[in-house]
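Chapter summary example: a protein plus calcium ion.
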Amino acid sequence: MRLLVVEDDKDLNRQIVTALENAGYAVDKAFDGEEGLYLGETEPYDAVILDLGLPKVDGVAVLQGWRRAGKVMPVLILTARDRWSDKVGGFDAGADDYVVKPFHIEELLARVRALLRRAAGHATSELVCGPVRLDTRASRVVVDGNPVKLTSHEYRLLSYLMHHQGRVVSRTELVEHLYDQDFDRDSNTIEVFVGRLRKKLGVEIIETVRGLGYIAAAPEKV
Ligand code: CA
């Protein structure tokens, strides 16, 4: 899952980005409305964290710009405690959720998880595919009840496929949603990660669809 953080307060931006990266997401960052607007219009994010008080272009205008451009990714707005009118403006502009500053980073993480799974049509924080269970809160994976240790890239890959299970996901889409902007992207590495993931899981839940990509699906019961 790839996220964008638009926040002009450098310390807060770094704090949010670090927490999200530690939680296993690929994260891009912007420090003003202009940069944020551009990134949100041109890159495919799974969710965005958007401050409302931003230099150059304010947050509400950024959000309106994205929605006008047909961008439907979930957007969580950050707003100051006494600015309830900002909040209303944010929702009118197409925000999906908000967090009031100052906030606990855990609350932000929980809201981001909820946005991501709702966007993918899941009601709970645990995703299940056959014998594989992925706990999005703890970033943990178990197979038949046994914990499996995954690297952050392997986890991201599995998490993305499981959020979209039953749908074929192309390699290009995976590359766009697993790596941040600065990462040296190479779609061949996806195949390597899929291979390692299959080996570690020990069960067939990731199928290759020749020429199209990959699909996560529960193995058929014999
Ligand atoms: Ca601000």
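Key point: The chain has two domains: 2-119, 126-216.
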